Amino acid sequence: MRGRNLVAVALLCGTSLLGACTGVVDRRGFLADESQTAPFQDGVDTKETVLTRMGNPSQTGTFDEQTWYYISSIQKQTAFYLPRTMERTIVAISFDDGDKVASVRKYSLADGRVIDYDTRRTPTRGREVTFLEQIFGSIGRAPVQLPGSDPNLPTSAGGPRRN
Questions:
Q1: What is the rounded end-to-end Cα distance, in angstroms, of the chain?
Q2: Bridge partners (DSSP) listed for residue 108
Q3: pLDDT of 55 strictly over 80
Q4: pLDDT of residue 143
Q5: Are 47 and 95 spatial neighbours (Cβ–Cβ below 8 Å)?
Q6: What share of the chain is helix, strand, coil (3-state, %, to 5)?
Q7: How many other β-carbons are positioned within 10 Å of the β-carbon of residue 50?
């Protein structure tokens, strides 16, 4: 009997550990169904028809507010690892000056680009000076003259100072 209990506890622990490795799926952004994503007709559909079928956009264009973006993504995270994006869909709808649909473009995860940010240094203008150059850089330079310390400037009495 004791051996069966040990096997049962081992199976329970093993099942729990395997369950912890199951990924967590997270759906974010615009979740569309087929009726909403039916193709829009260029020059016929307007901003109003897009709003009634798709709702408010996830994002508008930064420099051109005549482009609306509907963004959705599916991410999966397993245990303690960072989340991985499994699927991304972006629907970009552009409007003309009369608020009618000009074009509809669809992008997927394959259309994206990886951008490598260099977060270690901030570039500055000018010459980079080392620590030793900062300390010994003023050796041999002319001393800084403060206002009023030049003996040849006139004083309040009017005329050069004489020592």
A1: 112
A2: 89
A3: yes
A4: 67
A5: yes
A6: 20, 25, 55
A7: 21
Residues 6+ apart with CB under 8 A from 84: 75, 76, 77
Q: Give pLDDT tens digits for 77-133.
A: 988 889 888 888 888 899 999 999 998 888 888 888 877 776 677 666 777 778 888
Question: Please, what sign has the CA dihedral across residues 70, 62, 47, 45?
Answer: negative
CA distance 47 to 94: 10
Distance between CA 110 and CA 41 in Å, rounded?
Answer: 26
Angle at 33 between CA 43 and CA 46, to 5 degrees: 20
Question: How many Å is the maximal CA-CA distance in the chain?
Answer: 115
DSSP 134: H
The DSSP code for 90 is: E
The Cα 17–Cα 27 span in angstroms is: 25
Q: What is the DSSP string of 26-70?
A: EEEE----TTTSSPPPTTT-BHHHHHHHH-S-SEE-SS-TTEEEE
Which residue type, as a one-letter code, is found at position 3?
G
| For residue 28, pLDDT beyond 70 | yes
Please list the residues that pair with 100 across neighbouring strands. 46
